[in-house]
Design brief:
This protein is an alpha+beta fold. It has twelve helices and nine strands. It binds 3,4-dihydroxyphenylalanine.
């Protein structure tokens, strides 16, 4: 740039600066992002820019001219810098708006919900019954579902010719040694024998689990169902302990006012044996039209009795030193009575409209 020595030079400088300003303003307009903006800025006022060159030229000028030219250069430089700053604001605002738009979450949109599962009503009843007996001091015991004929029948005083052992009633499995006559346990009672073999008296246990019978499905039968076995063995257990314990269980499971009665029955592994009925929790025996007990007033609940001394002998207990009682209940039957369920098939249909009614 020529030093300002006359009016012509001054005009030239004015023109050059004006041109630079116009060019820069135009390029700022089209700068699409902050990088482009930085490039425009350093091109106009940076170290290699026309403004820097003009400033370098000031050194060769006379003092008065230098002041004049310096003022002109500074003015344009200021205007350019102000325009750059304004454009930078604009671009930064655009960038912020773009980020906000791209990261926006529509909080009004429906979330995807997965229905949560719940404990099956049969398991709920198992848990509840076990809790009641644990509260009475009982332990929980378990045994295998594939069982030997010895534990399922012989140890429980059930002779080889007993009809329950026929293939029409019992599902035998082709597994293990043939002399073991492996089968799917038809009740939870073999857990009594297994437990007594492994533990000295006193014994207070409940044993919940799956049981199997060669039955066709109908409203009250399933080939696979659940039982809970109970066994108490000690030095002087009596029949009144049996009745008192089961009455307490019935009051906790049904109602505080529930009554029980015992009817004589037969089971090979108890003597005497009985069936336990509970007073109808719906009508308390007062309504001939009751839908729960059908007017009977009583509901059949479980089988029980005093442990037959032969069972003690079979497991190696001294049958002259201990006595005991045992009981076995069908879990589905309890659940049906409690909830007024009309068919045992509902438990295995897996229809959520049924299952949802028992939130637990
Ligand atoms: N095991 C019997 C059944 O499946 C139920 C039963 C009856 C169990 C009397 C017992 C008992 O422990 O003492 O029908």
């Amino acid at each position: 740039m020529n030093p300002i020595t006359n009016e012509t030079n001054r005009m030239e400088l004015t023109e050059t600066l004006e041109q630079l300003k116009q060019d820069t303003l135009a390029r700022l307009e089209t700068a699409a992002d902050l990088d482009a903006l930085d490039a425009v800025e350093s091109g106009a006022v940076g170290r290699e820019s026309p403004i820097a060159a003009a400033r370098r030229g000031l050194g060769q000028m006379e003092a008065e001219q230098r002041r004049d030219a310096g003022r002109m250069i500074n003015e344009v430089a200021k205007e350019i810098e102000a325009a750059v700053a304004a454009r930078r604001e604009e671009l930064a605002a655009d960038a912020r708006a773009a980020t906000i738009a791209s990261e926006a979450i529509d909080v009004t949109i429906d979330h995807i919900s997965f229905p949560s599962g719940r404990i099956h009503v049969v398991q709920q009843v198992i848990d509840e019954v076990c809790d009641i007996f644990v509260g009475l001091g009982y332990h929980i015991a378990e045994g295998p579902e594939a069982e030997t004929a010895w534990y399922n029948f012989d140890a429980l005083n059930t002779p080889p010719n007993h009809p329950a052992r026929l293939e029409s009633d019992t599902m035998y499995v082709d597994y293990g040694k043939p002399e073991d006559e492996m089968l799917l346990r038809t009740h939870t009672s073999p857990v009594q024998a297994r437990y007594m073999e492994q533990h000295k008296p006193p014994v207070y246990i409940v044993a919940p689990g799956k049981t199997y019978r060669n039955d066709t499905v109908d409203a009250t039968h399933l080939p696979v169902f659940y039982q809970i076995e109970g066994l108490a063995v000690d030095e002087s257990i009596t029949f009144s302990d049996l009745k008192g314990t089961l009455a307490e269980f019935a009051r906790q499971f049904f109602l505080p006012t529930t009554r029980v009665r015992l009817r004589p029955h037969f089971f090979p592994f108890t003597e005497p044996s009985a069936e336990l009925d509970v007073s109808c929790f719906n009508c308390d025996g007062g309504e001939s039209s009751c839908r729960v007990c059908k007017g009977v007033g009583w509901l059949e609940m479980l089988g029980c009795g005093m442990v037959d001394p032969r069972v003690f002998d079979a497991v190696g207990y001294d049958s002259s030193a201990v006595t005991g009682f045992a009981f076995g209940m069908g879990v589905e039957r309890l659940a049906m009575a409690r909830h007024g369920i009309d068919s045992i098939r509902h438990f295995i249909d897996n229809d959520v409209r049924f299952l949802e009614q028992f939130p637990g």
